[in-house]
């Protein structure tokens, strides 16, 4: 197998203001695997390609430099004859790098099988969770459900009341039925006012708020008491590792940063309303689908989002969402925040839903040559 790495840098046209600061650009690496494999039905070209993306974001993943260095080692090992699947374990503490390899492998397998990535992911999860009863002969016919699109939320950055309402109205006008507001960057009373204003302006829309770990226990409870009734949940009201505080809050809470900082099972024990699954922060699309299944077993809602990734990882996250039955609205409408992208958008958002690509694999292998 042959492995190649290529760095990229994507500026945001619309920087995202959060309680943690402003996200202005996304730098990352594409990983391309190519194999002349011995599949029953080899691709006409005689090779199969898988492309993965690592777009690290400290706070959720390792830093860029570490990501680049471990991926360069992995690519060299693959070129030297190592089985890439054996290298995944080495990347356990570098989730963005692991994501690139996990996605490249999943894309390669799905492409070789001639199925869209979401079908491969759903199948992979079934056989992982129930190896005894999954008969490979019949499994595929059981899983022929066509998922054409998945529901997505609009993401509204931190801003004053008027701008927040205007932005929310534009999103609702564009067909979004679920909106996520960034909070925690201004005084509590101002955020409560923003939530009240949007929910009064748009009574039919479901709202979420994301505090990006900005509050103390007391502030978080105060916000939930004042605005909780108007919100489906508050994402990450407290610092990532304050599990006891998160578990003690009264009102609906979702975990995001926490999932990148502690064992997933410990996060589930805090009994959140929802878990925000970022494949980039969890080590890859296959892992994200497994964790979604675990959350569901506990009655916890799995919401899929990205760290504002490029087209390769964003499309893969759409496949992850499509592999989860009855997935709730996901934070996947982030293409419009980017000024340029790794390739054409094959999972475009319209009317509050993202189109799920139906070609083989992730469908983004040609992004490799896009900027050439
Ligand atoms: O979930 C969404 O609506 C979009 C993604 C998002 O908010 C986000 C994007 C980059 C980094 C962190 C976050 C976050 O959920 O906190
Ligand atoms: Mg979040």
3D structure, described in words:
It is a single chain. This protein is α/β, with parallel strands linked by helices and 372 residues long. The chain has 14 helices and 13 strands. The strands form three sheets. A seven-stranded parallel sheet has the order 5-6-7-8-9-10-11. It has a three-stranded antiparallel sheet with strand order 1-2-3. Helix 6 (161-173) links the parallel strand 5 (154-156) and strand 6 (178-182). Helix 4 crosses helix 13. The structure holds 2-succinylbenzoate (OSB) and magnesium ion (MG).
CATH C-level class of the largest domain:
Alpha Beta
Q: For the report, how would you describe the main beta sheet?
A: 7 strands, parallel
Fourth-tier CATH superfamily name of the largest domain: Enolase-like C-terminal domain
Can you tell me the residue ranges where pLDDT is under 50 for at least 5 consecutive residues? 137-142
The Rg value, from CA coordinates, equals: 20 Å
Question: Strand tally, please?
Answer: 13
Q: Briefly note the structural class of the backbone.
A: alpha/beta
By CATH, the architecture of the largest domain is named Alpha-Beta Barrel
- The first-to-last residue Cα distance is 23 Å
Shape summary: globular
Query: According to CATH, what is the topology of the largest domain?
Result: TIM Barrel
């Amino acid at each position: 197998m042959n492995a190649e790495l290529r760095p990229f840098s994507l500026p945001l046209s619309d920087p995202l203001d959060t309680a943690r600061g402003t996200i202005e650009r996304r730098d990352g690496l594409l990983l391309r695997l190519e194999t002349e494999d011995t599949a029953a039905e080899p691709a006409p070209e005689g090779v199969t390609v898988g492309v993965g993306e690592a777009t690290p974001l400290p706070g959720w993943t390792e830093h860029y430099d570490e990501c680049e260095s471990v991926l360069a080692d992995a690519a060299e090992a693959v070129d030297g004859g190592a089985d890439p699947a054996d290298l995944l374990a080495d990347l356990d503490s570098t989730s963005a790098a692991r994501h690139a390899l996990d996605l490249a492998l999943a894309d390669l397998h799905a492409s070789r099988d001639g199925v869209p990535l979401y079908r491969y992911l759903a199948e992979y999860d079934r056989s992982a969770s129930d190896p005894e009863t999954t008969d490979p002969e019949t499994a595929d016919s059981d899983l022929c459900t066509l998922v054409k699109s998945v529901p997505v939320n609009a993401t509204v950055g931190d801003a004053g009341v008027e701008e927040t309402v205007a932005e929310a109205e534009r999103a609702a006008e564009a067909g979004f039925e679920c909106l996520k507001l960034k909070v925690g960057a201004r005084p509590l009373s101002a955020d409560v006012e923003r939530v009240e204003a949007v929910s009064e302006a748009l009574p039919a829309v479901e709202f979420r708020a994301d505090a990006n770990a900005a509050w103390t226990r007391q502030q978080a409870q105060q916000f939930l008491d004042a605005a909780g009734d108007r919100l489906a949940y508050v994402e990450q009201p407290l610092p990532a590792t304050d599990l006891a505080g998160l578990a003690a809050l009264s009102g609906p809470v979702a975990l995001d940063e926490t999932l990148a900082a502690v064992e997933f099972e410990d996060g589930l024990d805090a009994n959140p309303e929802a878990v925000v699954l970022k494949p980039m922060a969890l080590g890859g699309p296959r892992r994200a689908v497994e964790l979604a299944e675990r959350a569901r077993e506990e009655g916890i809602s799995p919401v899929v989002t990205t760290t504002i990734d490029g087209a390769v990882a964003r499309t893969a996250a759409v496949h992850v969402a499509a592999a989860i039955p009855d997935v709730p609205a996901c934070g996947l409408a982030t293409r419009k925040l980017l000024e340029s992208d790794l390739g054409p958008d094959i999972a475009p958002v319209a009317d509050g839903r993202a189109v799920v690509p139906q070609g083989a694999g992730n469908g983004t292998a040609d992004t490799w040559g896009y900027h050439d």
